[in-house]
Amino acid sequence: MSIDPHAPAVEVARRVRAGEWSAVEVTRTALAAAERLDPVLGAFAAITRERAFAQAASVDAAVARGEDPGPLAGVPVPIKELTEVEGLPFEAGSRALVGNIGRRTDAVAQRLVDAGSTTLGTTAAPEFGFPAYTEPAGRLPAVSPWDTRRGAGGSSGGAAAAVAAGIVPIAHASDGGGSIRIPAASCGIVGLKPSRGVVSTLPTRTPGPGLVCDGVVSRTVADTALGLDVLAPDAPWGSLLAALDREPGRLRIGVTTQPVISDTAAVHPACVAAATTVAGWLADLGHEVSDAPRAFPAERWAAFDVVWATGAASIPLPPEVEDELTPMTSWLRSRGRRVSGAEYAQAMAAIQLLEYEVDQNWAGLDVVLTPTLAQPPAFVGALRNDADPAADFAAQIDHTPWTSVANLTGRPSISLPLVRAEVDGQTLPIGVMLTGRRGRDDVLLRLAAQLESAHPWPPVAPLA
Q1: So where are the chain's domains?
Q2: Quick one: which of 202, 266, 189 has its CA closest to 234?
Q3: Does 262 qualify as catalytic in the annotation?
Q4: Catalytic residue among 117, 156, 174, 179
Q5: Is 155 annotated in the active site?
Q6: Largest separation between any pair of C-alpha atoms in the chain
């Protein structure tokens, strides 16, 4: 049988369930691509051949018995290395955890396995997921297939690189300040941060302050819908994949290219042009398009900063490994340790107030359109500054001045690879971001599917 190595997850699962494709052969094809491309891409923290083949054989056996193996039947779905899987390396992108092995399987990862997927491996992430680039110490950086001199973004950079290069159609990812959407934009794929609370991490992880959401990255809106259906089986809207058959209706869409969390970010003309172009397409599709007010003044983002640094400080690490941490992580942990309980409580209260104020500012809008990033995908090392972590952090903020708004407010937000531009003689994806109303992920995905249908993007990135 001939396996299409670039088939979307929806098609792979359909063909495997129908007995047209063998899950074992799908796995073999994906593993061959991973082993061929990963020395360039730096997408994987670990490749797990034996586990993937065992899971695939189980799927094929279920099909042979006339059973339904699940909605992701035979689809290779790697897990981001920040998420624990029993028996697999669990190093969180850090030299401090080299040799650490997962003792249990995270609830989110288990849902993907239970849906019939095969765990091809774990995908690379920066240390504990803090940076907006994926350059783990001692390992290859994760790079964009569109231009391998440029990073894949972070923190789900390995996942995005693997998907964009056509190794897998879909990959697990997570987003605490843009970590799904930043890599999606850098690699030219689809990345949705779901609404807060839609994807439960209990009982293996508590939601904490509510900034982080699990999800997937993929090459199509339908595959993202399928992934979220698996991760959020109790979502109030039912099947997102089925919902894509319906038009979103006429939506009120606000547009802005003014940075939110930074007053110093310079927005590249290609990023402005991408948002302007997509705004025109939305108007052509019959939506009501207008200017969007700024979500909040940049100084109000300080509450996120306090919570982010405190999160770094709260990671349980023995004192003897502190010297193994990157300067960025050490700097964040040092700052977080100086936050008092009262200051943390005040920051959480400020975030709740900010959520309310953004609801008021955007009350007349169903969706807000912005660029995903202020600049094209960054060159490897361009944001990282081990000698000056404060400058590193400031550069990340200027590069991503919109993404964390959705994390602060609990809104769904999706980056789409609708536009490409010539930058320094290289064709690059320029992501645009649509942020919707909290709990209306279904409307946001229907709008994304409408745009995808009208303005399709390349199915696989050219390796350059």
Answers
A1: 9-454
A2: 202
A3: no
A4: 179
A5: yes
A6: 63
For the entire predicted model, the pTM comes to 0.98
Please tell me which residue in 80, 144, 195, 262 is annotated as part of the active site: 80
Q: Which of these is catalytic: 94, 117, 144, 155?
A: 155
Q: Which fold has domain 9-454?
A: Amidase signature (AS) enzymes (3.90.1300)
Q: What angle do CA 395, 401, 403 make, to 5 degrees?
A: 120
* Residue pLDDT tens, the chain, 464 long: 689 999 999 999 999 999 999 999 999 999 999 999 999 999 999 999 999 999 999 999 999 999 999 999 999 999 999 999 999 999 999 999 999 999 999 999 999 999 999 999 999 999 999 999 999 999 999 999 999 999 999 999 999 999 999 999 999 999 999 999 999 999 999 999 999 999 999 999 999 999 999 999 999 999 999 999 999 999 999 999 999 999 999 999 999 999 999 999 999 999 999 999 999 999 999 999 999 999 999 999 999 999 999 999 999 999 999 999 999 999 999 999 999 999 999 999 999 999 999 999 999 999 999 999 999 999 999 999 999 999 999 999 999 999 999 999 999 999 999 999 999 999 999 999 999 999 999 999 999 999 999 999 999 998 86
> Residue 193 catalytic?
no
Q: Is 162 exposed, middle or buried (0-12, 13-18, 19+ CB in 10 A)?
A: buried
